[in-house]
Amino acid sequence: MENVFDYEDIQLIPAKCIVNSRSECDTTVTLGGHNFKLPVVPANMQTIIDETISVYLAENGYFYIMHRFEPEKRIDFIKMMKSRGLISSISVGVKEEEYSFIEQLAHDQLIPEFITIDIAHGHSNAVIAMIQHIKKHLPTSFVIAGNVGTPEAVRELENAGADATKVGIGPGKVCITKIKTGFGTGGWQLAALRWCAKAASKPIIADGGIRTHGDIAKSIRFGASMVMIGSLFAGHEESPGKTIEKDGKLFKEYFGSASEFQKGEKKNVEGKKMYVEYKGSLQDTLTEMEQDLQSSISYAGGKKLNAIRNVDYVIVKNSIFNGDKIY
Ligand SMILES: NC(=O)C1=CN([C@@H]2O[C@H](COP(=O)(O)OP(=O)(O)OC[C@H]3O[C@@H](n4cnc5c(N)ncnc54)[C@H](OP(=O)(O)O)[C@@H]3O)[C@@H](O)[C@H]2O)C=CC1
Ligand SMILES: Nc1nc2c(ncn2[C@@H]2O[C@H](COP(=O)(O)O)[C@@H](O)[C@H]2O)c(=O)[nH]1
User: Fold this and answer.
1) Which of 152, 170, 264, 319 is the most buried (most CB within 10 A)?
2) What is the pLDDT of residues 290-315, one digit of tens each?
3) Which residues act catalytically here (predicted)?
4) Ligand 1 and 177: CB distance under 6 A
5) Ligand nearest the Cα atom of residue 180
6) CA proximity to 269, closest of 281, 252, 255
7) Treating both helix axes as pointing N-terminal to C-terminal, what angle do 151-160 and 189-199 enclose, rounded to 10 degrees?
8) Model-wide pTM > 0.90
9) Is residue 22 part of an annotated ligand binding site?
10) What percent of the chain has pLDDT above 70?
11) Is residue 219 annotated as involved in ligand binding?
12) Is the pLDDT reported for residue 220 higher than 80?
């Protein structure tokens, strides 16, 4: 790998504008045969998404992936979404009980539109076996498999039947994988995304490390079809994390799925807890993301998201913020 860079090292180069208003630019994306308003999905983590947010996002045309940390609630969750005519999108792990869970869904004809296999090290026989198990029992569900950080992994999971792969090992805000293990795409997530996207024949979801709305456009430029985001979604009124007050200011709790707080024990901990500033309503952020992305599309010289894929870029090592700290 020669050119290694991350989000803050890149600037996209503007092309001639073809719209009279940014409102003409279309941020919608299609995944698994469904259209969504934004190429953005809140992380499937317990302090980011819950049932209420899932319903809100599905009702309002946004993609969502429910987390897998209350496994006993998943059947009722799918039933509830189906009773409202909404897309059901759940997560699974790879342990033994997940195999019977998939069989149960098939038996009850409770077929989720999307199933995400959510594992730290997705380039593994365990994930390949789970992809094959899902495809055998629920062939119409769209399977997202991850997480991975190499072209070999993308190819193997796609060949096993995954409909999309999720790229990002360790770039997350509450991730300590990079520190505890020495491995991952932390610090070069955008270059890893490009590397993986070149090998992919199916959609890629870029996961982790997004710190600004401009990073969404950069992810699209380097091959992502969708972007998974945790920290930018942690501080909302609706966010499931606890709200605390410190020195008259409100903060929301955000913890890693492999943190002690999630696991309830200090074993193989690869995540931490932090507090992010409270920032109002979820819809305000989604609206701002849409407007910013419309602006990105206009700078790309197009009307649709795909225009961003064709723009040139420069590498400006660690300098785009000119010393400004925005996160
Ligand atoms: N994107 C990222 O960078 C990371 C994300 N996470 C998140 O944390 C959560 C927990 O992940 P995870 O620990 O995989 O899930 P689980 O705790 O459900 O573990 C899944 C299975 O994989 C095994 N396993 C986990 N890590 C490894 C590894 N490095 N090598 C071999 N086997 C492994 C576990 O066994 P055993 O525990 O006995 O090894 C277990 O059998 C997920 O939501 C995941 O997305 C965690 C770390 C990194
Ligand atoms: N290494 C770890 N990564 C984790 C953990 N919990 C979640 N994650 C990953 O982070 C992203 C969100 O990243 P952000 O930069 O947008 O905040 C999430 O989607 C997971 O892939 C963890 O405990 N350890």
Assistant:
1) 170
2) 999 999 999 999 999 999 999 999 99
3) 175 (thioimidate intermediate)
4) yes
5) 2
6) 255
7) 50
8) yes
9) no
10) 96
11) yes
12) yes
